[in-house]
Design goal:
CATH architecture: Alpha-Beta Barrel
Radius of gyration: 17 Å
Number of strands: 10
Strand order of the largest sheet: 1-4-5-6-7-8-9-10
Structural class: alpha/beta
Distance between the termini: 41 Å
CATH topology: TIM Barrel
Number of helices: 12
CATH superfamily: Aldolase class I
CATH class: Alpha Beta
Largest sheet: 8 strands, parallel, barrel
């Protein structure tokens, strides 16, 4: 079987995690968590009459390489907050994205929005670590987890007060996410195995995501027209990263994406909002 970039990233994170556990025991993370204020409400920020935007801070990516504008997460998060973002995403993988966990703290402590830690999470330790870093939400990627792992990690994060964005790529993964109890379902328009991007991935699965779940479209969104296109299939929110990180004026680039009306699309009815 051909190995993919996703396989490489996860294998690398497993090796890094073994070392991290030696440096900072889980018990220490739990002690840190006890001293923290409650998480901010990530899910609530993603609902409303407009398509909401999760604006991302990342320094590099396997598909784009290093971004030329290496902004301070603190300054960039403030700029996002001042230009209509609903939440901020921080990509913390070090080897492939040049991130670090402290990005979450720096982004969160200088503006009022909730922050999601985006990383490749597959172990309870990483969930505790995320909360200790002051994350309000985490990303769980269906493609790297078994059904049992997905449910247990989702439940652990929820027990700590965090929201969970469960990332999928196709209909089968959407069904797995819903079966695991996901309340926020992300559809990555980028295939993490081939790195190809196509907005039609979100359109193709819209009729599987009930209206009582938050539907987030991720990756490949470059223009207001893209947001309008996605609004027609019923998305609640979008996640935008590379576009903003490439921009010389991220706030100005972000602003037009935040004023698109949300539409019902063809999503099946749920039992009401979260």
């Amino acid at each position: 079987m051909t190995r993919t970039i996703l396989d490489e990233i996860v294998d690398n994170r497993r090796a890094e995690l073994a070392q991290q556990k030696l440096r900072v025991p889980e018990a220490e993370l739990r002690t840190r968590i006890e001293a923290l204020d409650p998480p901010r409400n990530f899910a609530a920020m993603l609902t409303g009459p407009k398509v909401r935007v999760i604006a991302e801070v990342k320094r590099a990516s396997p598909s784009e390489g290093q971004f030329g504008q290496l902004y301070d997460p603190r300054i960039l998060a403030q700029e996002y907050a001042g230009n209509g973002a609903a939440a901020v995403s921080c990509v913390t993988d070090e080897t492939f994205f040049q991130g670090d966990g402290f990005m979450v703290h720096r982004a969160r402590n200088y503006m009022p929005l909730p922050v999601i830690r985006k990383d490749f999470i597959f172990d309870d330790y990483q969930v505790y670590e995320s909360r200790a870093l002051e994350a309000d939400a985490i990303l769980l990627i269906v493609a790297v987890l078994s059904d049992l792992e997905l449910r247990l990690l989702h439940d652990l994060a929820t027990s700590l007060g965090m929201a969970v964005l469960v990332e999928t790529h196709d209909g089968a993964e959407v069904r797995r996410a819903l079966d695991a109890g996901a309340k926020i379902v992300g559809v990555n328009n980028r295939n993490l195995k081939t790195m190809q991007v196509d907005l039609s991935h979100s359109e193709a699965v819209a009729d599987l995501i009930p209206t009582d779940k938050v539907f987030v479209s991720e990756s490949g969104i470059k223009t207001r027209q893209d947001v309008e296109r996605l609004s027609h299939c019923g998305v609640d929110a979008i996640l935008v990263g590379s576009l903003l990180m490439k921009s010389e004026d991220p706030g100005r680039t972000l602003r037009p994406l935040t004023s698109v009306d949300k539409r019902p699309g063809r999503r099946p009815s749920g039992r009401g909002l979260l």
